[in-house]
Write a structure and sequence with these properties.
By secondary structure, this protein is α/β, with parallel strands linked by helices. The protein has 7 helices and 7 strands; from the N terminus they run H-H-H-E-H-E-H-E-E-H-E-H-E-E. 38% of the residues are buried.
């Protein structure tokens, strides 16, 4: 199924950026053949990852600034940046071959709202972000700890999780105002704020 139809089927409506997302999918498919950037080996699997990355747009408050921790081949950060062209996006990724791809894709797609930080998140210096996202990096408690210098009491979090989210959240749930939105095999942990 074409990407546009897949997004519409999930209730994801984009004002712009569909053409860039399609181009991103093709770029990633080409680079992946040589550089092995992601487990998504064909266009259908890449499109599924794009839909997965963008599904939270159906329930989150759109941020003015976004930090994506451990962006990898662009999920969810580059996909979100393409869909949220009015949002200032920082992609934090320490692995050089992925950084090279992200920088090339940003240039090729003409995305002016995105920058790549080729470092580990705990070494990043920046004013607090409005939203911090991450997929498949580490557990919730550690992610919150690693990003504490990049957040404040207005920062929300969007973590793309599997089944372990329910065990992870037990350790920190008393500190958080959160929802878990389930879709297919994904659990989207949306932390609206920390409770002081």
């Amino acid at each position: 199924m074409p990407l546009k139809e897949s997004l519409e089927q999930e209730g994801i409506s984009l004002d712009s950026g569909i053409d860039k997302l399609v181009r991103f999918a093709h770029l990633l498919e080409e680079w992946n053949k040589v550089h092995n950037l992601t487990g998504a080996k064909n266009l259908n699997a890449i499109n599924d990852n794009i839909v997965d990355a963008l599904f939270p747009l159906t329930f989150i408050k759109k941020p003015h600034s976004l930090l994506d921790v451990g962006t990898g081949a662009g999920f969810p950060g580059l996909a979100l940046a393409t869909a949220l062209q009015g949002t200032e996006v920082t992609l934090c990724e320490p692995l050089n071959k992925r950084v090279a791809f992200l920088r090339y894709a940003i240039m090729d797609l003409g995305l002016e709202n995105v920058r790549v930080e080729a470092k580990r998140v705990e070494t990043l210096k920046h004013t607090p972000f409005e939203l911090i996202s991450s997929r498949a990096v580490t557990n919730t408690k550690l992610l919150l700890k690693l990003t504490e210098n990049l957040s404040d009491d207005k920062t929300a979090y969007l973590f793309y999780k599997g089944e372990r989210v329910f065990d992870e959240i037990k350790e920190v749930q008393h500190q958080l105002d959160y929802d878990i939105v389930q879709k297919n095999h994904r659990n989207y942990l949306y932390i609206k704020s920390r409770v002081c």
